Amino acid sequence: MKGKTPKTFAMLLLASALAITAGCGGGTTASETPEDTGDTTSPITFTFFGADASPNWNNMKDAVGQEITKRTGVTIEAEYDVNNGGDQKIPLMAASGDYPDIIFPKGNLSKLVDAGAMLDLTDLIEEHAPNLKKIYGDQMNRLKYSLEDQAIYAIPTNMGVDNVSFDAGGGFEIQQKVLKELGYPEVRTLEDYENVLRTYYEKHPTIDGQPTIPLTLNADDWKIMITVTNPA
């Protein structure tokens, strides 16, 4: 809803958010204590902000959106960031205290947590979301925000619950000029990869007057998921 809302849901899985919030009954905000009215399909609209663009969003007019509304009474009033990944919008929310009911913050969840904007979903999941508990099973502990803060603020989609990766989604890379200079050596193992980098580094300890960095992993903010903790 519009206006200043003390707490908001941070969801990475919108369908899960609907499953949880639908159990709150009609007329409640994200910050209120849910009241069991016995009616879980009364019409209710939740505001949502997504840090990524969504050019295919059609205001829940497709078959899936209509079925969600039919089963839960929920409709979503959504706003999506166009090109900033929420990096500008979310800090403004945190500064103003004006939040949507549900949010996909991408790499900015910590800003909302630090601002005291987030609602702990632990009790709501326990009471209203048996299917979520069934999905995550013994992985539920991984939903907790941190060792110091045991609250559950987000429902992720990329935890890999009972997931087995048969194909690597990414891999280590070597610049073409490095391979060319070394005569295109065969690289099939991590040891081969290390040897290529080490050999090139020993031949070129500096490049353009700067120390050579043989291997770089970008672990800044959300990008840790791309270069450090991905299947590679």
Helix run count: 9
Strand order of the largest sheet: 1-4-2-3
Strand percent estimate: 5-15%
CATH fold annotation of the largest domain: D-Maltodextrin-Binding Protein, domain 2
Spell out the helices and strands N to C. Answer: EHEHEHEHHHHHEEH
CATH architecture of the largest domain: 3-Layer(aba) Sandwich
Helix vs. strand class: alpha/beta
Low-confidence stretches: 12-36
Count all strands and give the number: 6
CATH superfamily of the largest domain: Periplasmic binding protein-like II
Number of domains: 2
State the distance separating the first and last CA atoms. 41 Å
Instruction: Return Rg in Å.
Output: 23 Å
Q: How would you sum up the major sheet? A: 4 strands, parallel
What is the percent of helical residues?
25-40%
Average pLDDT level = 81
Q: Shape from CA axes?
A: elongated
| The top level CATH class name of the largest domain | Alpha Beta
Structure description:
By secondary structure, the chain is of the alpha/beta class. The protein folds into two domains: 9-143, D-Maltodextrin-Binding Protein, domain 2 (3-Layer(aba) Sandwich), CATH 3.40.190; 176-227, no CATH class. The protein is 30% helix and 10% strand. The protein is built from nine helices and six strands; from the N terminus they run βαβαβαβαααααββα. It is elongated, with a radius of gyration of 23 Å.
